[in-house]
Amino acid sequence: MRRLLLSLLLLSFFVSPTFSQKKQDVFKILDTELEKARVALNTPGFAIAIVQKDQIVYAKGFGFKDVENQVPVTENTLFAIGSSSKAFTSAVLGVLSKEEKIDFDARPGKYIPELRFAEPWMNEQIIVKDLMAHRTGLPRHDFSWFMFPSESKSELIKRIEFQEPFTGLRQQWYYNNWMFFLQGEIGARLTGKSWEQNVKELFFDKLGMTRSNFRIPEMEKDADKSFGYSVDLDGKTKRMDYYNIAAMGPAGAINSSVSEMSNWLITWINGGKFKGEQIIPEDYVKEAMSAQMVVAAGTPSKEHPDVQFSNYGYGWFLASYRGHYRVEHGGNIDGFSANAAFYPTDSLGIVVLTNQNGSPLPNVVRNMVADRMLNLEPSDWLGETVKRLEEAKEAQAKAKAVADSTAKASLTKPSHILMDYTGTYEHPGYGKMEIDLKNDTLFVQTGLLGGFLEHKDYDAFNLFLIYQGEPNRDNPFVLQFVSNMTGDISGLKASLEPALDPIEFKRTPKENELSVDDLKKYEGAYLLMGVQEVKIYIKEEKLYAFVPGQPEYELVNIGEHEFNLKVLEGFKVKFEEKDGEIIAVNFVQPNGTFRGERKKVE
Fold first, then answer.
1. Is the distance from CB of 533 to CB of 525 less than 8 angstroms?
2. Count of helix runs (H) and strand runs (E) in the chain
3. Spacing of C-alpha 168 from chain mean position
């Protein structure tokens, strides 16, 4: 027995350094491979951390967090993690569920009484779990918050009632940021604290995530932060402004570093525990990383027959990666991309954060590292990605050449003068856009984004949004203006949600401020059709029309001698002038135009 024990101790003594050396060799290989990936994908900078069981075994920065000044990325550099924030949001509800403060099978309206969905069946059947697994039947409606941001949570809740579904409940998985906003608000209603406070107190404070934060000002004042960059297919890099996600924070507002995100992954790998403390309920951990909805078929490809399945839990994507169960979630927000992943049965976690907008690097690096750490034969993830990017570049060049060769000036004209398209256009599920005419060009302002219109065909115009300081020439939105029965521009349609028919915005013409003296020239009695007397008069400094047997109508000036009836869409009056005097009025309505001559004052 003594001899056996001595042999085991000797074996341990000699084997451990070998394992340690092998690990160091892997990390040296990774140092070279990861820098090669950064250069090949034209990535300004990124950071990565690898955790095993309850330890960070590798953490390093590559490239630059400030390209202009060549300041290197470190493992402590803060990046925006985008939608990798979602697992934090759902986990707040997981903690509250353990405390029996929330029932995942209850309707969300139980916790947000004023919440309404667009269809009765949605109000009756959607439960909290559906919000957590992207299975409500609602498409993304992302432009509602991206183009029309708001710091008002109550305003955003009101918009949801007017966002149409595209399919039935639990019939199809469809990513939806709005439902994670609702989860954040449910948590806030139950605790009396904001989503930010809940995440900080329940997770950041307990996991030593002392520099992780939720707001741009907090990010900006940190000494070790990264700027965000866009990189085009030619490799040209441009710094991007940080994006203020406002009240939509629960869907993707967290800024963090790979060193602090490692503690988050360690917690999940260890069944919700960190340093012996149960941070996330163990039952919730199991439920959140188990399949709650099928995302797609996830069938094996010819190139990767051992990568399969595509499911979703609560704030996590699930798949089988070469025989290993993988739980992960990416993140993309202006100038940044991210991926946080763990392999629970292998006690392995990998987090990759980069300052490249819409970057493939986080997924490529995650897979490269997973192959090495799981002792798998490395696949050429980088080579495949570079090839796809080259193909995309070629396709883009061909498409541009075709577009340039077929481009021609429109042979049609708008049905109205440009001034007639100005006004406020509003959809209750999205927001307001203002269209103004300046120097023969129509300009659009959505609240966050501005842009300008170029005539396309008839009453269709291309909208070129000014995004990050430049017009988005490659992907304009088409705005189709629509008219009412009297021929006036009454609204516009825009394909802001691919899963639905174009969204229609109702137009309100811009009101012109006229003085009482200006209004006085319209006052008087008019004999309509030579029979009925109509009175035009001023009351409380506003102009009104009164037709016997009908209520009085306030008139809103929209142009020279032209007024809308404030409460009746498609009805307006036009006054006629001769020799500086108003001589008649025309009531323009869907069933015709009715003229009334002004009665002379005797």
1. yes
2. 14, 32
3. 22
